[in-house]
């Protein structure tokens, strides 16, 4: 078994070592050939002769040689082993590698997200991609150690259940022999049961949500860091514990992975001594006062509301985290404890981090009779929950509550990633389970090479989300003005979609067709250094359509989506649907709901 790693050679100058790993790059200088050898700890330069000429990138080798100190003028400050190199004496080829579909030795992988995921076993080898999951490992380790230090006991929760946990429809049914079962929406029931045994418990559990949405922050399978605690004196103790946990996570990531934070040019989130706690109604009023956008009658914050509260917390409390509390009973699961002082509200909370929900939690109903009554209010049959869930309450349950932290969400936001799939080893969504699920897309990496109609994809997404829309057929149009005339709509109603590259990564901007992008303002608000338009060739490669026919659904192509707030003055919007001769007209609010964009002011 391998016991010596590349990082260990730093202290072995002059000694003979045997290193095993992958060939990252090869540089042929006739009689001298340089290899960059890679293992899980880093990269080191190997100097050899013509025997290396037959080796190809990603071939697996064993190399025996002498650790040498590099001359000062040849030191490479970009890598940890930049002061040394290996003078090869002999090598063994352990495994050949076929020709790579793209160069993974670049500092940044120049591939689209679908390609990144299509070749996941290969792209995960890239140091910058690999680094994401080193951070994720530290998050899980810190969760475990923090909970252990607080006296919690870890348990393993089942992922096949007899009853839908949340009592809703967003479940994956499975055939369990001759019976119906479900993939667990969460380990919630088992957490509560285990409180009656170990008092304070936690688990790292996979959860499944059959949500028909394709956004940059949703998955159908995710990992939850779940905790539940009994004998609480106040429901605020749950928030105290969640706050302690995230601060411990930030501390650990900063101590162990400063190199990775530097690689991603980001720092851990700014957090105040006490994370601000704001009731939902108060948050909605704050949003209205700051933006004049009225969501005060809504049962939840929409994505833009979450981002606005992040901005508010950062400006007023020097915190990139904020708790939103007291969600209405109709918005929370049936086991959530109502507020005794305001029964229409619950003793529940979400923690918003960098503009997205990271944690959800609250106090649970622990009284058996009250829980049964609440289950009935939810139009559910208590008998379906009797075994084993309600048994724990029938035989005595202390006052208790808990929370769940989304592992992929916190990883994504700590590192400033633009899509949650980047923070997921093997992401599952409604379009992918390892392979792309559309038959037309299987085994065809570039979107531009598939036969699937973009319009059909849009139509399917709208129908799955229950959206009413109007399909317009017309002569081909190539400008926004032409389109508005042939559609019989105003130019202002047109949703103009532009593909751009921000610091080398593609994204989509959508704005009213009569306006232009204020690039300076957008770069400032989104902290972007370099911004440029995608070329016609890049547009075709990314989404398979021509410029002028780009639909405004970045989520459909797993692209970060930014929508100018000026588009929201329209009750209905209209846009080309992947074809110069086909358009779709729909409600603006439906568009925002299913595309989940970042709303910003970036048009003039």
TrEMBL record:
<dbReference type="GO" id="GO:0006422">
    <property type="term" value="P:aspartyl-tRNA aminoacylation"/>
</dbReference>
<dbReference type="GO" id="GO:0005524">
    <property type="term" value="F:ATP binding"/>
</dbReference>
<keyword id="KW-0067">ATP-binding</keyword>
<comment type="similarity">
    <text>Belongs to the class-II aminoacyl-tRNA synthetase family. Type 2 subfamily.</text>
</comment>
<feature type="binding site">
    <location>
        <begin position="217"/>
        <end position="219"/>
    </location>
    <ligand>
        <name>ATP</name>
    </ligand>
</feature>
<keyword id="KW-0030">Aminoacyl-tRNA synthetase</keyword>
<dbReference type="GO" id="GO:0002161">
    <property type="term" value="F:aminoacyl-tRNA deacylase activity"/>
</dbReference>
<dbReference type="GO" id="GO:0004815">
    <property type="term" value="F:aspartate-tRNA ligase activity"/>
</dbReference>
<feature type="domain" description="Aminoacyl-transfer RNA synthetases class-II family profile">
    <location>
        <begin position="133"/>
        <end position="427"/>
    </location>
</feature>
<dbReference type="InterPro" id="IPR045864">
    <property type="entry name" value="aa-tRNA-synth_II/BPL/LPL"/>
</dbReference>
<feature type="binding site">
    <location>
        <begin position="406"/>
        <end position="409"/>
    </location>
    <ligand>
        <name>ATP</name>
    </ligand>
</feature>
<feature type="binding site">
    <location>
        <position position="360"/>
    </location>
    <ligand>
        <name>L-aspartate</name>
    </ligand>
</feature>
<dbReference type="GO" id="GO:0017101">
    <property type="term" value="C:aminoacyl-tRNA synthetase multienzyme complex"/>
</dbReference>
<feature type="binding site">
    <location>
        <position position="357"/>
    </location>
    <ligand>
        <name>ATP</name>
    </ligand>
</feature>
<dbReference type="InterPro" id="IPR007214">
    <property type="entry name" value="YbaK/aa-tRNA-synth-assoc-dom"/>
</dbReference>
<feature type="binding site">
    <location>
        <position position="364"/>
    </location>
    <ligand>
        <name>L-aspartate</name>
    </ligand>
</feature>
<dbReference type="InterPro" id="IPR002312">
    <property type="entry name" value="Asp/Asn-tRNA-synth_IIb"/>
</dbReference>
<comment type="function">
    <text>Catalyzes the attachment of L-aspartate to tRNA(Asp) in a two-step reaction: L-aspartate is first activated by ATP to form Asp-AMP and then transferred to the acceptor end of tRNA(Asp).</text>
</comment>
<feature type="binding site">
    <location>
        <begin position="209"/>
        <end position="211"/>
    </location>
    <ligand>
        <name>ATP</name>
    </ligand>
</feature>
<dbReference type="InterPro" id="IPR004365">
    <property type="entry name" value="NA-bd_OB_tRNA"/>
</dbReference>
<feature type="region of interest" description="Aspartate">
    <location>
        <begin position="188"/>
        <end position="191"/>
    </location>
</feature>
<dbReference type="InterPro" id="IPR004523">
    <property type="entry name" value="Asp-tRNA_synthase_2"/>
</dbReference>
<dbReference type="GO" id="GO:0003723">
    <property type="term" value="F:RNA binding"/>
</dbReference>
<dbReference type="InterPro" id="IPR006195">
    <property type="entry name" value="aa-tRNA-synth_II"/>
</dbReference>
<dbReference type="Pfam" id="PF04073">
    <property type="entry name" value="tRNA_edit"/>
</dbReference>
<feature type="binding site">
    <location>
        <position position="209"/>
    </location>
    <ligand>
        <name>L-aspartate</name>
    </ligand>
</feature>
<dbReference type="InterPro" id="IPR036754">
    <property type="entry name" value="YbaK/aa-tRNA-synt-asso_dom_sf"/>
</dbReference>
<dbReference type="GO" id="GO:0005829">
    <property type="term" value="C:cytosol"/>
</dbReference>
<dbReference type="InterPro" id="IPR012340">
    <property type="entry name" value="NA-bd_OB-fold"/>
</dbReference>
<dbReference type="InterPro" id="IPR004364">
    <property type="entry name" value="Aa-tRNA-synt_II"/>
</dbReference>
<dbReference type="InterPro" id="IPR047089">
    <property type="entry name" value="Asp-tRNA-ligase_1_N"/>
</dbReference>
<keyword id="KW-0436">Ligase</keyword>
<keyword id="KW-0648">Protein biosynthesis</keyword>
<dbReference type="Pfam" id="PF00152">
    <property type="entry name" value="tRNA-synt_2"/>
</dbReference>
<comment type="subunit">
    <text>Homodimer.</text>
</comment>
<keyword id="KW-0963">Cytoplasm</keyword>
<dbReference type="Pfam" id="PF01336">
    <property type="entry name" value="tRNA_anti-codon"/>
</dbReference>
<protein>
    <recommendedName>
        <fullName>Aspartate--tRNA ligase</fullName>
        <ecNumber>6.1.1.12</ecNumber>
    </recommendedName>
</protein>
<feature type="binding site">
    <location>
        <position position="166"/>
    </location>
    <ligand>
        <name>L-aspartate</name>
    </ligand>
</feature>
<keyword id="KW-0547">Nucleotide-binding</keyword>
């Amino acid at each position: 078994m391998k016991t010596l790693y590349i990082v260990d050679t730093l202290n072995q100058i002059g000694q003979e070592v045997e290193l095993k790993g992958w060939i990252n790059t090869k540089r042929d200088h006739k009689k001298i050939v340089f290899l960059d050898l890679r293992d899980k700890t880093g990269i080191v330069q190997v100097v050899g002769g013509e025997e290396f000429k037959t080796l190809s990138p990603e071939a697996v080798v064993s190399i025996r040689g002498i650790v040498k100190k590099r001359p000062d003028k040849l030191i490479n400050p970009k890598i940890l082993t930049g002061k040394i190199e290996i003078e090869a004496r002999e090598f063994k080829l352990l495994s050949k590698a076929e020709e790579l579909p793209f160069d993974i030795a670049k500092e940044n992988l120049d591939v689209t997200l679908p390609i990144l995921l299509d070749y996941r076993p290969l792209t995960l080898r890239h140091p910058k991609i690999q680094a994401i999951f080193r951070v994720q490992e530290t998050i899980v380790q810190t969760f475990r150690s923090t909970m252990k230090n607080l006296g919690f006991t870890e348990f393993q929760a089942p992922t096949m259940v007899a009853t839908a946990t949340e009592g809703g429809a967003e479940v994956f049914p499975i055939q369990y022999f001759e019976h119906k079962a479900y993939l667990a929406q969460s380990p919630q029931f088992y957490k509560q049961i285990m409180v009656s045994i170990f008092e304070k418990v936690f688990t790292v559990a996979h959860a499944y949500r059959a949500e028909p949405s394709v956004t940059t922050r949703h998955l159908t399978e995710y990992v939850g860091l779940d905790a539940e605690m009994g004998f609480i004196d106040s429901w605020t103790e749950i928030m105290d514990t969640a706050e302690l946990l995230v601060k411990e996570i930030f501390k650990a990531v900063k101590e162990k992975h400063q190199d990775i934070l530097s690689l991603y040019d980001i720092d851990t989130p700014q957090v105040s001594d006490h994370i601000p706690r704001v009731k939902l109604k108060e948050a909605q009023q704050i949003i209205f006062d700051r933006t004049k956008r009225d969501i005060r009658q809504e049962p939840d914050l929409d994505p833009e509301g979450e981002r606005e509260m992040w901005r508010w917390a950062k400006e007023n409390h020097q915190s990139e985290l904020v708790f939103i509390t007291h969600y209405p009973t109709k918005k929370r699961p049936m086991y959530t404890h109502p507020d005794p002082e305001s029964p229409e509200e619950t003793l529940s909370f979400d923690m918003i981090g960098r503009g997205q929900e990271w944690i959800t939690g609250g106090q649970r109903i622990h009284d058996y009779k009250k829980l049964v009554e609440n289950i009935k209010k939810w139009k559910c049959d208590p008998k379906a929950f009797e075994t084993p869930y309600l048994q724990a309450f029938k035989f005595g349950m202390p006052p208790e509550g808990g929370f769940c932290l989304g592992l992929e969400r916190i990883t994504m936001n700590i590192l400033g990633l633009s899509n949650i799939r980047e923070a997921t080893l093997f992401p599952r969504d409604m379009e992918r389970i390892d392979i792309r699920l559309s038959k037309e897309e299987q085994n065809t990496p570039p979107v531009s090479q598939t036969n699937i109609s973009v319009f059909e994809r849009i139509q399917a997404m709208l129908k799955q989300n229950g959206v009413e829309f109007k399909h317009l057929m017309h002569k081909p149009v190539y400008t926004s003005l032409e389109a508005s005339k042939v559609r019989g709509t105003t130019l202002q109603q047109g949703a103009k979609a532009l593909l751009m590259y921000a610091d080398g990564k593609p994204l989509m901007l959508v704005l009213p067709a009569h306006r232009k992008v204020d690039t300076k303002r957008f770069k400032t608000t989104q902290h972007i250094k370099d911004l440029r338009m995608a070329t016609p060739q890049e547009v075709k490669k990314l989404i398979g359509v021509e410029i002028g026919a780009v639909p405004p659904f970045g989520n459909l192509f797993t692209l970060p989506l930014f929508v100018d707030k000026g588009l929201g003055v329209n009750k209905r919007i209209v846009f080309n649907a992947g074809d110069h001769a086909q358009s779709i007209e729909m409600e603006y609010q439906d568009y925002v709901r299913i595309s989940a964009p970042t709303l910003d002011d970036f048009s003039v």
